[in-house]
Amino acid sequence: MRKISLQTLFLGCVLILGCTAQKRSMVPKEELLQQIEQNFRDGSAQYRQMMTRLPADRLPKTYYEKTDKFQTAPSSDWCSGFYPGTVLYLYEQTKEPSLLNEAERILKVLEKEKNNRSMHDLGFMMY
Prior knowledge:
single chain, mainly alpha
């Protein structure tokens, strides 16, 4: 009887400690929130720089640091929706008008793909 009570007490303590540890880790820390905001500012700055270097009708695909060059892709490429999607997410967080303007511009380039029936990755491109 005493052995069962000790086991029950031990199990109860483990469960309580486990639950309280999770609760503490879910509370946002001010430092973490500041770091997240800084990451969005940094990402926005990088995308604003990239916007100035892209050809008008092309989307970024890969960046080669050693040569400081972009590999670009046409709107028909399977990953063409990643760039406008990221620009819109950055705009959503920062409210920088230049990001919204760029998203609207590049979505016009991508618009012709909405009727592309030869691509199985249309979801990556448009949504």
